[in-house]
Amino acid sequence: MRKVKIGIIGCGNISGIYLENLTRTFADTEVFAVSDISEERMQAAAEQYGVPNCWTAEEILESPDIELVLNLTTPGDHFRICRLALEHGKHVYVEKPLSLSPEQGGELAELARAKGLLLGGAPDTFLGAGLQTCRKLIDDGYIGQPVAATSFMLGHGHENWHPNPAFYYQAGGGPMFDMGPYYLTALVSLLGPAQTVAGMTSKSFEQRTITSQPLFGEKIDVEVPTHIAGTLRFQSGAVATMITSFDVWSSNLPYIEIYGTLGTLLVPDPNNFGGPILLRPAGAAEFKEIPTVHQYAENSRGLGVADMAHCIVNGGTPRANGELANHVLEIMHAFHTSSDSGVYAELKTTCEQPQPLATGLVKGYVE
Ligand SMILES: NC(=O)c1ccc[n+]([C@@H]2O[C@H](COP(=O)([O-])OP(=O)(O)OC[C@H]3O[C@@H](n4cnc5c(N)ncnc54)[C@H](O)[C@@H]3O)[C@@H](O)[C@H]2O)c1
Prior knowledge:
The chain has two domains: about 5-125 and about 300-320, Rossmann fold, CATH 3.40.50.720; about 125-290, Dihydrodipicolinate Reductase, domain 2 (2-Layer Sandwich). Helices cover about 30% and strands about 25% of the residues. It is built from nine helices and 17 strands. Helix 4 links the parallel strand 4 (about 70) and strand 5 (about 90-95). The two termini are about 15 Å apart. The relative contact order is 0.18. The site of nicotinamide-adenine-dinucleotide (NAD) has 22 residues, from loops.
């Protein structure tokens, strides 16, 4: 079986786990080149993971060897680099969010369709053992028909640990565009596509102070809302309540709960790949932990890329695909536009509920 040769653009904070898994875990992937505007980060990545080529982004795009471009730059560069990759005839997978606006996301999806290329986007945590087991429980009827859900991500931002956190407070950042993709992709994977969004947003702090190294003490101007609350109705009729916030020091709320006609499912952290999962059927005295029955409970970032590589070789639709990422992008925007306009936002995009992964997979494979 041939491996798909990948060129990675962006060797920053998140690149290590991708490099680790794409070079050592997955059967269908080979990292053929890395690129970063920081020579030091690029060389370090190549050396640590045995990548044979350190190239400029342009060299990756021009190379006939590269089939798939993995775009791990920060949100402001996602659209430009993805479009260039597609224009150069490469399949492309990008970290979240897909782009800054649904118009940009739609343009990428359309360009990929027109060129017969695959477009995919993070997150791929919904393919992990935790969320796949939840999907199986719902599909197999353990909570009956899902009628409602809650989804909470409350924290105080990333300036206490990320080495260069300014992008979290610029366009494409904020808690919804940063963390919303995990929660919304999980919800769409579990409940299907959404239809209507009502949102309210606020910004509680005009500036943030970096307390991580090496930029300790520097101020960041906050350009985006940092507390987003709202509701969304799914096409199935289920109604979810959602909060994402960088303005809250601590809270005691669950990650995601799904309420069905026959019981309640407590979904694990959608930013991770594993459990725990708790289920309480109607009438049961307490929640019981359900063991995960799928592969990939550990940090498997890159699983969506491996799934895409499998589709490049064998055909099929990648699960973490552009339609899904663009639908999630439109939902995230809709919370903001609904808040600005004071009216519900009716969504224009939709997507297929991604196919579940099988149980019993061998580690490194998606089929
Ligand atoms: N850091 C995390 O824990 C984390 C987790 C999940 C997802 N993400 C997402 O991953 C993306 C990257 O985040 P990060 O934390 O790794 O950011 P980062 O700033 O640490 O890394 C981005 C890297 O891209 C490089 N880069 C930018 N433009 C480039 C270009 N034109 N050519 C080559 N290199 C270029 C930068 O030099 C930098 O090394 C973001 O979209 C973020 O939302 C990050």
